[in-house]
Give the backbone structure.
Amino acid sequence: MKREFKNFFSKKYIFIVIAILLCIMSFFWYTSIPRADNEDFHFQESVYSDFIEEIKPYDSQEELKAQYEKLNVYAPGMTNYNNGAQYISLLYKLSITYQLPYDSLVEFSEETKYTQFHYLGTFKAPIMIFILLASLLIGGFYQTSDVMNKMSKLIFSSGVIDRKYGVSLLVMIALVTVIEIIIALLGLMYRDSEAKYCVLYTGGNSLYVLNYFQYFCLFLTSHLIALTVVYTFVYYLSVICKNGILPVCAIFSILLVYVLIQTNLPDRLFFNMLIRGGFIEALYNRDIANAVNLNNLCLYIPIILLPIIVFVISRFTIKRTDYSR
């Protein structure tokens, strides 16, 4: 295993690929971050408005309790009265219980706000782009480069194929973890926003409350699972094909088709969970009247099963293939 780590870090092209992909990730992030000088009134209102607009401003706990006592059973303007009113009631109860000052809560959503939670969220798609491209280029060619050099018979006989997978995946996991830790630390520059908790409403009395560290852990877990799934699929598909070019070109074609047709897809949740942000995509709620449906997480089952199936097939393929050719 130690020798394989040395072998991985001896391949200079991997570092060149990683550097290029980090630049691409930074570019996508830069083009997606909110601009303070944007002249769009609705944009400015969204960025600088209250964290949760359904809670009216208050200056003291007494004023907060008075607002809660006056809260109607049905909140006006809600399309789903039961969920909407229950959600607002839970928000008030939470603020009273923890004696939170105004604008301490943010919603688990993709809405643009200047808080540490939303800063971290703006990296969701760029990091996933990095994961996808790195998995394709490293997972597709790290092992198959030895196939092209006629070294695979020796490699397979010494059991290095799986060790190569384990070492390269560990390095990728460590890299993504370090990147996200740095981003999370940079997000602390928005701690003056006074945002303390992120709330996730799942219907009824289910209101999950996440601090910044918990939010970061959920964010990181989503990406690491996505990385493991994508990298495993690409790596062992390349092992089966004995060539990284074919699976990489096939996957690039699928991604291109998705980009071209995504505007016509009625529900893009499955695709977003697959190639945009991982399972965390299922938790984003764009309408407060509708609670997050946790059953959507079941969409990740086929995404996880696919690399497992490819891995199992690779076991039979390796045994029947002469890799010395």
In short: Confidence is low (pLDDT under 50) at residues 73-81. The first helix runs from residue 2 to 9. The radius of gyration is 24 Å. Residues 21 and 130 are 6 Å apart (CA to CA).
